[in-house]
Amino acid sequence: MDQSGLTTDEAGRMYCAWRTAAPAYLHYHDHEWGVPVADDIALYEKICLEGFQAGMAWITILRKRENFRQAFEGFDFRRVAQYGETDIERLMSEPGIVRNRAKIISAINNARRACELVEETGSLARWLWAFEPGAQERPAVVDMAYWTANPTSAASVRLSKALKKRGWTFVGPTTMYALMQAMGMVNDHLEGCECRQRIEHQRNLFKRP
C-alpha cells in the first residue's frame, strides 16, 4: 500500500488497499460498497448490520451476513417488527450471529420504527435518500487523508439526529456515515481506485426514490 491508500494487483490495476485485507472484501469492495440502493429491505439490512458492527471489525459482520439473514428472516422489517421475547432468546442462542442483546433489541426496535416511517412517508428509501449530501458538501477528490479523517460528516450527523428523534437506536453519526458509504449515498472509493469511476457512473444513472 502506498501513501494514497491504494494497492496494485498483478495486472497493474489500483484499488482501495482495504480490498485485500480479507478474501470476503474483494466482492464487497468491487460490487457492493458504494453502489446506490433503493430497496427498503436491503436498506434496513444495512442499517442493522452497521449497528451490529459498532465496536467491531466490519469483516466480522460480513462473514456472518448470511447467518444474520437467516436468523432475521431476510431482514423483512415487517416480520422483525413482530418479534418478542421468545425471538430475542432465539437470536441470543444463535451461534452464527453477534449475540449482543442490546443490538438484537435495537434491530427489532428499528424494524418497528421502519414500519412507522414507511406508513408515514411511503418509503424508507425515499426518506433516507433525502439526506444525500449536496455536491458542495463532498470533496472534489477523495484522498486518503479525507477518508481516514472523516468517519462522520455533516450529512451523517443530520441523518443520525433525525433517526434518533424518531426513536431509532444504534444510529450514531459514525454508523450512519458507514451506512451512507455502503448504500451509495457517497462514493468513497479513493481517487485512482479502479472502481471509483464505475461507481460514480452508477450513481449518476441512479434514479433517486
Salient structural properties:
mainly alpha; Endonuclease III, domain 1; 209 residues; Adenine_glyco
Q: Can you describe what's shown?
A:
The structure is a single chain. With 209 residues, this protein is an all-alpha fold. The protein has a single domain, classed as Endonuclease III, domain 1 (Orthogonal Bundle), CATH 1.10.340.30. It is built from twelve helices and two strands; from the N terminus they run E-E-H-H-H-H-H-H-H-H-H-H-H-H. It has helices spanning 23-31, 40-53, 58-63, 65-71, 77-80, 85-92, 101-121, 124-129, 144-149, 154-165, 173-182, 196-205; strands at 6-8, 14-16. It has a two-stranded antiparallel sheet. Strand 1 and strand 2 (14-16) form a beta hairpin. Helix 10 crosses helix 11. It is globular and about 55 Å long. The model has no long low-confidence stretch (mean pLDDT 93).
Describe, in short, the structure shown.
The protein is 54% helix and 3% strand.
